[in-house]
Amino acid sequence: MGYSLPYYIVPSIILLILIRKYRESKWGKCRNQVLLNKKVAIITGANSGLGFEVTKELASRDAEVILACRTFEKAELTCIHISELLDNSPKLVPMELDLASLKSIKHFADEVKRKYNKIHLLINNAGVSYPRKMTAQTSDGFEIHMGVNHLGHFYLTQQLLDLLSESSRVVVVASSLHERGEINLSDLNSFAAKKTNLYANSKLANIYFAQELARRTKKEKIKVYACCPGWVYTGLFRHYMRWFHFIIVAPLAFFFMRSPKQGAQTIIYCATEPSLENETGLLYKDCRYYNRRTIFFDNIAKQLWEVSDKMIEDALKKSDVQV
Ligand SMILES: NC(=O)c1ccc[n+]([C@@H]2O[C@H](COP(=O)([O-])OP(=O)(O)OC[C@H]3O[C@@H](n4cnc5c(N)ncnc54)[C@H](OP(=O)(O)O)[C@@H]3O)[C@@H](O)[C@H]2O)c1
Question: What CATH number is given to the structural domain containing 186?
Answer without folding.
Answer: 3.40.50.720
